[in-house]
């Protein structure tokens, strides 16, 4: 899967990788190509646009780690954005409830719902769950029989068929049977339609009201590309989906549906259908999929290692300065940069009262804005002021505020934060707690 997208992106990165330095124009050109690659892979337009915007901003604003090339760093940024787009973690089923847990599968006709019901039942059974399946599909002739056949093949119990019963009645009967007979999981395969229509949605809502499912999983055919995304959007507006299962990923060279799904529905892809056989269902691992798309695992881990090494180096330097009780504006700046890189408190910052406040401010305003502003203020100071913040009098404050596009009040806040941290540092030194602190940093 994803072969063509993978190839296209590979080409873009090959051109970037060899370069010693990247200009903003290089990055923008590369990102234009990434955007075309995504659109050709059938990724929904707003999703592609958003993706490229995020990556461009990061790639341009990013300081390059010492031991990697800018091109390598861009690969890592794209990788992280892909993982973000696909969902940060493998999404688990929430079925650890008082049994029976109810899993309802919904979707259009032909999307692979019935097959997937059997596949998932088989998977859960192999994990030691006692599973029962029931088909609520009274529209398609022989749909209930199809599930019964699959039940025999997978050795999973199916609810006996009672001719003439309507979906809500069947759901009620299935729930009672699962309760009485001590099943862990009840799988409900619902009716599909050729198109999304209101009668279908109403039926699903009625069934969901009775069955109170722990999971409502939308089954979509990844081969339908943009259509899959449209279907998912309509369903997610009407029923409280908890996740998506993409079928026919085995034949999907483009991958647009997979890439857009999470951004469009806000729901994670939980499983991927990888073939017609009943064992061809896999949990969806965003990291692995992103890795497969880029095919550059070596570069990603190289950049990760470089980043870790630099953090360690920085921490050691900082520890040495602390040992002397030093903490000037340059140190503060280093800590702020670390917070930005790690998206949270730096190695040291967690222990500093002033820094905790900065983190709270960052959380409140959101994103890097606060950190960028603080960094701008420090940049507007002269080297002397940075080394000796005591020099900063009212006049200098005005100049710093002007230079950084902030206010004197902001400068005061920054100075106060620095002072608090410096005091904490001195206190630590006096208490002889430095060894412990250094241990934590090293
Ligand atoms: P339903 O109408 O949504 O219940 O769809 P079915 O479960 O009857 O599936 C329709 C067809 O798609 C069947 O021939 C399945 O074997 C096939 N199918 C389902 N999932 C996959 C998959 O992940 N990969 C492939 N290649 N075929 C699949």
Summary keywords:
binds guanosine-5'-diphosphate; 434 Repressor (Amino-terminal Domain); Four Helix Bundle (Hemerythrin (Met), subunit A); disordered C terminus; Rossmann fold; eight-stranded mixed β-sheet; alpha/beta; 19 helices
Structure description:
- This protein has 442 residues and is α/β, with parallel strands linked by helices.
- It has 3 domains: 3-86, SRP54, nucleotide-binding domain (Four Helix Bundle (Hemerythrin (Met), subunit A), Up-down Bundle), CATH 1.20.120; 101-289, P-loop containing nucleotide triphosphate hydrolases (Rossmann fold, 3-Layer(aba) Sandwich); 299-441, 434 Repressor (Amino-terminal Domain) (Orthogonal Bundle).
- It is 60% helix and 9% strand.
- The protein has 19 helices and 8 strands.
- The protein has helices at residues 3-17, 24-40, 45-61, 70-86, 113-126, 143-154, 167-180, 198-211, 226-238, 256-265, 286-294, 297-323, 329-342, 353-365, 369-379, 383-387, 394-404, 408-430, 434-441; strands at residues 101-106, 131-135, 157-158, 185-189, 215-221, 243-247, 269-273, 281-283.
- An 8-stranded mixed sheet has the order 3-2-4-1-5-6-7-8, sandwiched between helices.
- β7 and β8 form a beta hairpin.
- It is elongated.
- Residues 438-442 have low confidence and may be disordered.
- Bound molecules: guanosine-5'-diphosphate.
- Guanosine-5'-diphosphate is lined by residues 107, 109-115, 192, 247-248, 250-251, 273-276, 280.
- GTP binds at residues 107-114, 189-193, 247-250.
- One of its GO terms (cellular component) is plasma membrane.
- It is an enzyme of class 3 (hydrolase).
- Part of the signal recognition particle protein translocation system, which is composed of SRP and FtsY. SRP is a ribonucleoprotein composed of Ffh and a 4.5S RNA molecule.
- Belongs to the GTP-binding SRP family. SRP54 subfamily.
